[in-house]
Amino acid sequence: MSSFTTELKVKPLPDGRTWELLEEFDYYLGSPESGLFIRVPKGFITDFASVPRIFWPILPPWDKYGKAAVLHDYLYHSHKFIRLLCDAIFFEAMGVLSVSWWKRWVLYLGVRIGGWVLFYKRRHNEKA
């Protein structure tokens, strides 16, 4: 079963909206013995879940799904996988964290509907 094997340690940045990872953290695809993992590096900057402010009362940017949101931010930033796979890993990671089914689906549908903007914007900025 997929798993997070390290703690998420972050510090808030002065902008009040983003956070910096103090240590790398890993997400294993399958079991740790599979050797397939994603390592989010120390120093990576995240905003956790990019939820529009109007929805924060029910879906705040950081919650039980925080590790999954940071992982997803990193996947979008790194372009290691196609967008569909990044979103599928996000959905799976929320399940690993025991996020309720309705939150998993709402957040997953949110990234499927609106995530293309960030995914392709970051890709375009890297080429420029």
Percent strand: 5-15%
Span of the ends, CA to CA: 39 Å
Work out the radius of gyration.
Answer: 14 Å
Largest sheet: 3 strands, antiparallel
Would you write up a description of this structure?
The chain is built from 3 helices and 6 strands, in the order ββββββααα. The strands form 2 sheets. Strands 1-4-5 form a 3-stranded antiparallel β-sheet, covered by helices on one side. A 3-stranded antiparallel β-sheet has the order 2-3-6, covered by helices on one side. A hairpin with an 8-residue loop joins β4 and β5. α2 packs antiparallel against α3. The mean pLDDT is 87.
Key attributes of the depicted protein:
128 residues, globular, 14% strand, alpha+beta, single chain, 3-stranded antiparallel beta sheet
What layout of secondary structure does this protein have?
Elements: E1 3-4, E2 10-12, E3 19-21, E4 25-28, E5 37-40, E6 45-46, H1 66-78, H2 83-96, H3 101-127
Antiparallel strand pairs: 1-4, 2-3, 3-6, 4-5
What's this, in brief?
With 128 residues, the protein is an alpha+beta fold. The chain has one domain (3-127). It is built from 3 helices and 6 strands.
